[in-house]
Amino acid sequence: MKNAKYMDEENILEKGVDLLIKGLGLVQAIRFMNISKAFKMESVKRHRLWQNNWIKKNFSKRFSVN
């Protein structure tokens, strides 16, 4: 069994970006890297909407002041 040698984060990022560019080309690599940012923002917005609706539905019924 071979011992794994860990690279520092800077080398991993550099090699990963190089591989993306070689495999996809510059434009497609940039598009790929931006997909996760857009998806992450979308999921955060979706979660906040869900959370606000959940709070309104559940807490307004339980803690309404009469």
Please trace the helix and strand order, writing H or E for each element: HH
Strand content: under 5%
Number of domains: 1
Query: How many strands in all?
Result: 0
Distance between the termini: 71 Å
Helix fraction by DSSP (H/I, runs of at least 4): over 70%
Largest beta-sheet details? none
* Overall pLDDT score: 82
Our Rg estimate from Cα atoms comes to: 22 Å
Q: pLDDT below 50 for ≥5 consecutive residues: which ranges?
A: none
Output the structural class: mainly alpha
Overall body shape? elongated
| Count of helical regions | 2
How would you explain this protein's 3D organization?
- With 66 residues, this protein is an all-alpha fold.
- Helix content is 80%, strand content 0%.
- It is built from two helices and no strands.
- It is elongated.
Kindly list the characteristics that best describe this protein.
66 residues, mainly alpha, 2 helices, 0% strand, elongated
What's the SSE blueprint?
Layout: H1 9-24, H2 26-62
Helix pairs in contact: 1-2
Question: TL;DR?
Answer:
The protein is mostly helical and 66 residues long. The protein is built from two helices and no strands.
